[in-house]
Amino acid sequence: MVASGTDTVSTQTVQHEQHVSRTDVLKLFVKMKMFVVFVILVHVSQHVSAVDMYEGDQFVLMHCQFPTSELVDPTVVWSRSDLSPSTVHQRQQEGDELKNQNQLYSGRTSMMPDALETGDLSLNLTELQLSDSGIYTCSVRDGFGRQWRVTDVQLQVKERFPSWAKALLVLLVLLIVAGGLLVHFRHYFMSGYQVEVDSGVESVQLPCKTPVRLPVDAKVQWKNSEHKMIHVYQNGSDQPEEQFYRYKGRTEMKRNLLKTGDLSLTLKYPTYEERGACSCTVYSREGNILMKKVVMLQVKVPQMVEVDSGVESVQLPCKTTVHLLEDVRVEWRLSPYTIRVHVYQNGSDQPEEQHSSYKGRTEMERNLLKTGDLSLTLKYPTDWDKDTYTCTVYSRERYILMKKDVKLQVKDSQVEVEEGVESVQLPFRTIGHLPEDAKVWWEKKEGTRWVMVHKIVNSSDQPDSQRKSYRGRTEIKKDLLKTGDFSLTLKNPTVRDTGTYRCDVILFSLLRRKTVLLKVKERIQDKDETVDIRNRSSSTDPTPLMADQSV
Q1: pLDDT of 525
Q2: 413-521 domain in CATH 3.30.450.40?
Q3: How many helices (H) and strands (E) does the chain have?
């Protein structure tokens, strides 16, 4: 199974050096991380993770992660082999495919809308029943018929703790407390809540309350769905050193929480990438779980900015009323990647920290710390730039003071002409003064492959690399690396030239990419033109000449 995954990645790498994901640095590094994750997932699938729930619980989230964005036409299937039909939930690129779903799960299963894009294939099962107990398998297959068994989750749904036994247990605990002993009470249930907010709000509260008085040496932990520590409270105070760095300075809990039983957490500036299950767990001094509750955080799609491909620039808005000191650091990143789009610190931009594909393409307002306008201007956006961008403000101590997501949608360029025109231009403009040794190539998608339309290496055309049907029919302006005009002229276009084209500019990694959709319509001749063609055809008919020669 691991060998198959390795072959897949190596094949994609060897086919063409241009076939990299977002970039060798921009996304090839991410891709390699995803490949490592893939290998780990394949090994993990040999083990079964166990989840204990109780009848009547609102939901359970069964985790599954896999880099499906790297696959062609991926499909994810959650199944139980002990059922017939075995399908619990199925998701394809077009959406859920539930016609073969087992009726036991009708209306009770769901996945994140962007599961196949993010690779978060976790299944949400609601209104838990005793019959839901079993082993759930998360499998992925691609359009070539290859299949991976990613992970198994063993779900055990138990009967609720009987009310009479619960009352007896509470009575015994009270007697123990009265005797001066520590509380060793444990709730045998997990409650579920759901909180929904807009991306960019100043804060959200994740509720967690208990009527049981907790011991003074209890430890409270909040974790996200990836088991990263959101907040820790112990020995009467917060423990920021145990927090995952992305949450530092962004969480708060109420005072005297062990006395009041209100363990709710306030999370500042929640982002789209932080959506998912958050758990609140209380431990005794000995490490026993005294209470556990789960809150499902739903963060709505961030603010959307939509532009046409070809515009000179687009602004990603981010404004704050928070007073910013001169020593703060402002970062724009691609989310959830760690790719730096723009960095501002110590009163000026830091281009040396920027990824190469964004150098010279980004700007921020002057005096941004005074005005609070942290908006980013991105020059010459293309469809390759469509993604979710995160603006984060850090204090000198690296605490997060503010965070906001903006989703950029760039429409594909569409060009439409009629067959018979002399030429058509596929537009692509970006900033100039790119390295002289950068490679440029235009390709066309045919099926699952990309074929070469035009290639430039060391500022020279490479006709031998072209598909024969394009030789002598393509042209790009000279000095394109200086001017930034990579537009392709295609001569005598025909209906067969209709399709998806893309241009890549590469120097060690992918610097620029643009997609153009070309449609060449078949020319319809009118009657007069048809008659004229016939007349011209008859006037040049060789038959009469042959007859004259024979006389």
Answers
A1: 67
A2: no
A3: 9, 36
Supply φ then ψ for residue 458, to 5 degrees: 55, 40
**Fold that domain 2-158 belongs to in CATH:** Immunoglobulin-like (2.60.40)
Sequence letter at residue 452: M
pLDDT above 60 (res 4): no
Tens-digit pLDDT profile for residues 476-517:
998 999 999 999 999 999 999 999 999 999 988 888 999 999
- Assign 528 a pLDDT band (cuts: 50, 70, 90): low
- As beta bridge partners, residue 329 has 345, 394
306: tokens are 């939509």
Distance of alpha carbon 227 from the chain centroid: 19
- Order of all β-strands in the sheet with 376-379: 313-316, 376-379, 362-364
CATH architecture assigned to 303-411: Sandwich (2.60)
Angle subtended by helix axes 29-44 and 2-15, to nearest 10 = 160
Domain ranges of the chain: 2-158, 175-299, 303-411, 413-521
The yes-or-no verdict on residue 167 having pLDDT over 90 is: no
* Helix (H) / strand (E) containing 220: strand 219-223
